[in-house]
Amino acid sequence: MVIAHNHNSQSTFKLKLNHMSDWTDEESAKIRAKIAVEPINYTPVMDASQRRINNVPDTYDWRNQTRVPNAVTPIKNQRHCGSCYAFAMVGALEKTYAQIYNSSGPLSPQQLIDCSYENGCEGGSFVGVFNYIHGNGDRLNLEKDYPSTPTGSKQDKCQNPDGQVLSTNSTYHLQYRSLPTDNEQYMKQTVYEQGPIYVYYNAGKREGNDTILREASTKFDHYASGIYDVPGCPTHENMNHAMVIIGYGTENGTDYWLVKNSWGTSWGNEGYIKIKRNANMCGIATWPYYAGLF
Q: What is the pTM of this model?
């Protein structure tokens, strides 16, 4: 499959073998979480004076900017646990931590898995884990203070509910905003003006008879480089993964999102993937969120 795909001159991306290549369908399904999608309650991230689409650069990467150093931390690995919702949340909040403390702070997904009253390794939601953080005094531990378990599994009880405060003072508080559905121009503006955003995604599934979902799963699992594009991938249903958009750009005339995954550095392009932009590819623009200081 990998060789045949890579010999297809019409494809915009390449595949490779990786640590997931010998996984069973059941193992692949484990890291595709049961996503609880909340109804969108759209609140503008930016007021009208900030919406300057023409002033947004064509390419941006939060890893390589100086406005907020350390906004993106190294790639993490959720292992055999459907905890993408927790990893995506910390990825979306690490820019806020860097903004407040002016230092690199990989935050703890394990705390969210153990303590947030979501479903541990069986999935969760953006709003659920955000509400946990907010109810915990806007606090979340650093990864070094609340490390992941060796297998990524949920622990029997919450080990340490304390952590770093992710609000600055009485003026600015940690809040979230739902971004408008299917509006990738607004998403681009938000990524540049505000920071990385949390997105739900249809990563396909190997089991079952849906050929598009099987194709999307196999290709997503083995992505290596280029711009991921699977025509026909569902955009408003079967959401089973969460990731973080950290940038965007254009390559060979095709617009893309630069996305941080949580499947380790042997997956993708050292843990990252470029996904076709302005096409709502696999639902990436259907339920986006931004969390930060307001």
A: 0.95
